[in-house]
Amino acid sequence: MLVVDAQVHIWERGTPPANHQQSPLSAEGLLQEMQSAGVDRAILVPPLWDPGVNDYSIQAATRFPEQFAVMGLVDLNAPMERDAFREWLLRNRLLGVRIAFNNSILRANLAVGLADWLWASAEAAGAPLMILAPQLSALIGMIARRHPGLRIVVDHMGIPRGMKAPNAFQHLPELIALAKYDNVAVKMGGVPNYADNDAYPYRSLHGYLRQVIDAFGPMRCFWASDLSRLRGPYAECVGMFREGLDWLSEEERAAILGRGLAKWLNWPPDR
After folding, report:
1. Which residue ranges form the domains of the chain, and what is each CATH number?
2. Residue 269: predicted pLDDT
3. Mean pLDDT in residue range 215-236
4. Cα distance between residue 63 and residue 162, in whole Å
5. CA dihedral 56, 59, 61, 66 (to 10 degrees)
6. DSSP string for 121-159
7. At CA 85, angle to CA 47 and CA 83, rounded to 5?
C-alpha cells in the first residue's frame, strides 16, 4: 500500500509559530521519521516563516524525487498569466500551489480580489491548489463553481488553528456541502491535534471523520500529518488511518493513505 503524507513543512531558517516545533526539520530528518512510521512519500509545503520561501523544499525534492514533491508558495502581488504560471511551475518542478488565508491580513487579500488571477491561471495550467481558509467554505464553493476545472484541496478540513472537538467540527455541514463539487477534496491533516482528552486511536474523532469520508468519498480525502505541529508520534497519526478507523475497507484505506492524493496531484503511484 502506497502511503503518502499530504503535508509536511521542512526548513533550515526562520522562526516557526509557537504551535510548531522550534528546531528546524530537515529533509534528512523527515526521511528518518518517514522510514520509522512506514510512510513512502511526502508532499512538502514550504512554511510561511522560511525566508527562503520555496528554495529548501525544492532542493529536497530535487535530491529525493522518489520521496518528495512540492506544493509551492506563490506571491499574490505578482500576478502571472497562464503561460508564465505554467512555466514557473515547470521550472521549479512544482505539482501545484498552497495558499493560506488563515488570518485577518491574508483574508483581506480575498476581499479585494488579490487572488483572482491565481484561480484563473491555475485552472488554465491544470495545477491543483491547496487552500488553508478556515471557516470559509462558502468562499471555496464560489471558487469551485466559477472554476470547475480547478482542483482544490481544503486544508485541515477547514478547522481553525488551535480548536478541539467538538467545537472544531461545528462547521462540518458547510464543509460537507462542498462535496457536491467534483473539483473539491479534503486534507485530513494533523487529526490527533483536534482530540480533546482521549488518546490513540482518538475514537472521539472517528464520527466526524466518517461524515467527511462518507460525503467526499475516500478518493477525495487525503491523510496528512503536518508533522512539525503534530500531537503524539508520527506512527500513531498514520496508524489511525492504517488500522484505527475500523469501518474502512482495505481499498478505502489505500485511497485515503495515498492513492487518491497521487491521482489528484498527478503524482502517479508506482506501487
Report:
1. 4-264 (3.20.20.140)
2. 56
3. 96
4. 34
5. -140
6. HHHHHT--EEEE-TT-HHHHHHHHHH-TT--EEEGGGGP
7. 170
